[in-house]
Design goal:
- The chain is an alpha+beta fold.
- It contains 8 helices and 6 strands; from the N terminus they run ααβαββαββααααβ.
- The longest helix has 18 residues.
């Protein structure tokens, strides 16, 4: 099962939906927000030179052909954005966190591999050191203390911080 299908079981009562998504750097995210606001990322079509053109397909083709390096000087990134919406003490509560990692100059094009492999490596090391709170086939959030896990991520260059920080 995917993480978002089971993580709610370990967060606490009242959590019903968890959604996960990847994200890009701030410049690209702002551009995507603008494209979405203009209706360019959906299924809409527009008329141009007496032809019907799907806006999403046009936007993709244009970016790949003319603006592939938009948003930076070739930085590779594997970023995650987590938003938690819910209630706490009778009021609405929203938390948002993002990840960041060392720049291309340090990690090269291995960002995806490192952002996947480093947490798995930390989990294996914690298992070897018997730093687990529960036994069995479980998600990491069910058996590892998060603060020490995040600290080990930070030691290896993966930072989890409130969005905008």
């Amino acid at each position: 099962m995917a993480d978002e299908q089971i993580i709610h079981r370990f967060i606490g009562k009242g959590v019903r939906v968890v959604d996960m998504r990847g994200t890009w750097g701030l410049g690209i995210m702002r551009a995507l927000r603008l494209f979405a606001d203009l209706g360019l990322t959906g299924a809409l079509e527009t008329q141009f030179n007496d032809q019907s053109i799907p806006t999403k397909q046009f936007l993709r083709a244009h970016i790949l052909e003319h603006a592939a390096d938009f948003g930076g000087d070739g930085e590779w990134a594997f970023l995650l954005n987590v938003q938690v919406l819910g209630q706490s003490n009778g009021g609405l509560r929203e938390l948002e966190y993002t990840t960041r990692h060392p720049p291309h100059a340090e990690w090269g094009t291995a960002a995806t591999a490192k952002m996947t492999g480093i947490p798995a490596s930390i989990a294996a090391q914690k298992l070897a050191r018997k730093e687990v709170s529960r036994k069995g086939v479980l998600s990491p959030e069910a058996c590892f203390e998060p603060k020490s896990f995040f600290a080990e991520l930070a030691e290896r260059g993966i930072i989890i911080a409130p969005a905008g920080a």
